[in-house]
């Protein structure tokens, strides 16, 4: 457990802040017992740092009051949704206050006539998806964490997901935000006139303000989904197939790629029925009407066969779909069959550069006593490069060296260090690889304009 | 012709800037003759203001050199694409330099594998659409001005268009920008890591920097388009039909509405074959595959009939499509049959508020000796309210009063003062109606951060 070392002055300020918080918030919304605080010390990266205070706001006023106090006493604030982030966004690196936004979980309004919904940040993404589905509407962003991650966290990290190729990612669906700024003032973005402030805050990772209301765009729910699995004896063939599908002017709802190491892990984990000869796998969902699917699926099957898939399988029932997707869903836990530790780098390159980046990753790995499993949203060029390492001496350091080399190649190919997981503290060291100096400086100026005292999620995004 | 009155000091600065420009730019790229300058004094609003100098850059270096000089001598800079804007964006209200970006019209790269294209700002939007179509790709934003407006102008104003309901507007397709800032430095936005700067500049109306390269997202070109016209005896029926089409989970590529006054104007102008009994018209394009169109068009026809359309007509040939769309295309010139002057306010309200805003517009007009024609992109809630007035005494003032009242109602209904034409100087007086004080202040702070000397398109967006 990391404990941020505070000076005497800082400790006093924290105590003053706590005293004031106790005056404006009801008791049960402010937690200070260590056993409570431990529950708010980690996230999906398995980093740990103990907050001094946990605040559980119920509404915008609570958020505003807390921020006013935090700002006054210069106490760090770290917002937390489900704590499932993969770059450290919710870890209170410098102690201070963690905002547990889980209680702000109302769906304020679904307006089917206008295809919009307004929700509080603590709403779980899957719940939003399910609620709008009752109106035959669809909220497309679908991170793998959708069943437990919150929409607030999704917006903060600009979460991606498996539907990105056809539908885009979180940023493409955020129409308006109610934001509490560090000084406690409440702004509303999303008016059309003037500069676009909504997009500036989307993906800002809790470094500029706290979202208290989120208005999302919805689209009509596709009538039907059909799934295909295609099996290849070579990863380049699978990549060719993905290209050929898209060349045929079809944008699948999902286009997932699994490499051999990933398949091996899954096979060992689930006992999934995947032959030994399968060295790469494409999982494809298409959605639309009965008619459009009937038109597209044969083209997709054909593209796979033309690219030397030795088998394709179309799922016709929900059960068959589920069986095909089980292997994809099991990847995360299955990878730990390879080794006990994982660095998951969600790199992103232009689609045309996927073969090349995987070739370079192979080259970097060549001869090193470490495993790398690659899978991900191939249509977006968003590949999860998973570097698996053991507790043996030197393994962690080797993994870090490999990550460094991979990141350099990604940026050299015009790609991004983060396809969909954000920067947090885990990737902040690579920011300047990707973002040129002047642009980086502009971002830091925005940060200091909104948060002059630097209380908002310190240690994240910028180094 | 408006001539901005300069002080002696300003005149000297302009002369110094000109002298320096002459040193770094070749002669033919700097125009000072009055007959040349007049050509750069107006835009689609018919306002006029004479620039002192016209610079016609050929590349980013030219733009950067000019901005450095303008910034040094504090000379206003106004960027100009085709000059077809409808809110005054390209009018050099305070004189100074007009940047004619028409010569920066190269399509730098179309990358069909990655569905992106990079172009210079002076490329005409239609040309971009046509060039990418050769690769079976589609750049969806389609403002009515596409045949002559430039992509740089489209990005600056965040142009909308008739495909917005299904495909979104310009902002949804801008992936990256090369921007020259007022100090002459060149930044590149569009990296995924960090804050989203691309969107902040998109729609910034030349007030923050000059775009010199624009990277756009493309999507597969739909196989086929089919068109339907539906005729109604009542405008509310047409609005109901539009709602019902969308309720059926169909997002038409285009969903245009024309009210009675608009139809009267078109009828008088083109001799179009539209019966007297037609009081409202819906024009619908759907696109997709043969199969999806075959599925959707009967549903659309049915929705129109259920909403009391007394006739529907599906165009099967290109010629028939063209005949149907001719009436829509003729609106702008046709309206001048009603009266010699027009204020075209492209208001935008939530779709569910269209009937209500049109009712309120009727109420505002009630008994006033003026004509109002309403038409537009009904699926987006983006209605063009055209206030037509004559040269008679008091008419212009009355038109302005009506505009004011309409804007207030639009904002009261949660709408925007500008759906797709930007703010410019024509709507800057209404900015504070829509944008709350603190958000307005934030925008002004961004403006002064990037442009501390206020040389970038002064007089636009902010009052």
Protein architecture, described:
The structure is a homodimer of 463-residue chains. With 463 residues, chain A is of the alpha+beta class. Among the domains of chain A are: 8-103, 2-Layer Sandwich (Uridine Diphospho-n-acetylenolpyruvylglucosamine Reductase, domain 2), CATH 3.30.43.10; 107-220, 2-Layer Sandwich (Uridine Diphospho-n-acetylenolpyruvylglucosamine Reductase, domain 3), CATH 3.30.465; 224-332, Alpha-Beta Plaits (2-Layer Sandwich), CATH 3.30.70. Chain A has 16 helices and 18 strands. Chain A has helices spanning 8-24, 34-38, 60-73, 125-133, 151-157, 164-167, 198-201, 235-247, 260-270, 290-306, 318-329, 331-335, 354-365, 395-412, 431-434, 437-450, and strands spanning 30-31, 53-55, 77-80, 97-100, 107-111, 116-119, 137-138, 174-180, 186-188, 210-217, 219-220, 224-232, 254-258, 280-288, 311-315, 341-348, 371-377, 382-389. In chain A, the strands form four sheets. The first copy, chain A, has a seven-stranded antiparallel sheet, with helices on both faces. Chain A has a five-stranded antiparallel sheet with strand order 5-6-10-8-9. In chain A, a hairpin with a 5-residue loop joins strand 8 and strand 9. In chain A, helix 8 (235-247) packs across helix 10 (290-306) and helix 13 packs antiparallel against helix 14 (395-412). The longest helix of chain A is centred in the last third of the chain and has 18 residues, at 395-412.
């Amino acid at each position: 457990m990391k404990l941020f070392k505070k000076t005497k002055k800082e400790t006093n300020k924290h105590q003053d802040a706590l005293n004031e918080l106790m005056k404006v918030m009801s008791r049960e919304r402010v937690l200070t017992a260590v056993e409570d605080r431990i529950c708010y010390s980690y996230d999906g990266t398995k980093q740990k740092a103990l907050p001094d205070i946990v605040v559980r706001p119920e509404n915008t006023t609570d958020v505003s009051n807390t921020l006013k106090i935090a700002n006054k006493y210069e106490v760090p604030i770290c917002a937390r949704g489900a704590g499932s982030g993969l770059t450290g966004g919710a870890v209170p690196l410098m102690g201070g206050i963690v905002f547990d936004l889980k209680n702000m979980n109302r769906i304020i309004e679904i307006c089917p006539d206008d295809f919009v919904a307004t929700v509080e940040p603590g709403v779980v993404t899957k719940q939003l998806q399910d609620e709008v589905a009752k109106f035959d509407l669809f909220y497309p962003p679908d991170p793998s964490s959708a069943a437990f991650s919150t929409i607030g966290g999704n917006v903060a990290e600009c979460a991606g997901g498996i539907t990105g190729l056809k539908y885009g990612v979180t940023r493409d669906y955020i129409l308006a935000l109610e934001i509490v700024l560090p000084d406690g003032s409440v702004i509303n973005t999303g008016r059309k006139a003037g500069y676009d402030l909504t997009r500036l805050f989307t993906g800002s990772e809790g470094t500029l303000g706290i979202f208290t209301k989120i208005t999302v765009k919805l689209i009509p729910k596709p009538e039907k989904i059909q799934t295909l699995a295609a099996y290849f004896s070579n990863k380049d063939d699978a990549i060719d197939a993905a290209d050929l599908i898209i060349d045929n002017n079809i944008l699948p709802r999902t286009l997932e790629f699994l490499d051999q190491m990933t398949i091996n892990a899954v096979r060992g984990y689930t006992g999934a029925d995947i032959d030994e000869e399968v060295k790469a796998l494409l999982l494809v969902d298409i959605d639309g009407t009965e008619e459009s699917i009937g038109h597209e699926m044969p083209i997709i099957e054909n593209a796979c066969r033309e690219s030397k898939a030795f088998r394709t399988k179309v799922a016709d029932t929900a059960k068959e779909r589920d069986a095909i997707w089980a292997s994809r869903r099991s990847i995360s836990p299955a990878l730990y069959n390879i080794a006990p530790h994982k660095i998951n780098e969600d790199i992103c390159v232009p689609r045309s550069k996927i073969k090349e980046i995987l070739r370079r990753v192979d080259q970097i790995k060549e001869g090193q006593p470490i495993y790398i499993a690659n899978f991900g949203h191939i249509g977006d060029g968003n590949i999860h490069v998973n570097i698996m390492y053991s507790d043996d001496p030197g393994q962690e350091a080797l993994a870090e060296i490999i990550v460094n080399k991979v990141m350099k190649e990604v940026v050299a190919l015009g790609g991004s260090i983060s396809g969909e997981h954000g920067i947090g503290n885990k990737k902040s060291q690579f920011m300047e690889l990707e973002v040129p100096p002047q642009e980086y400086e502009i971002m830091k100026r925005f940060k200091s304009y909104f948060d002059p005292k630097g209380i908002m999620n310190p240690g994240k995004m910028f180094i």
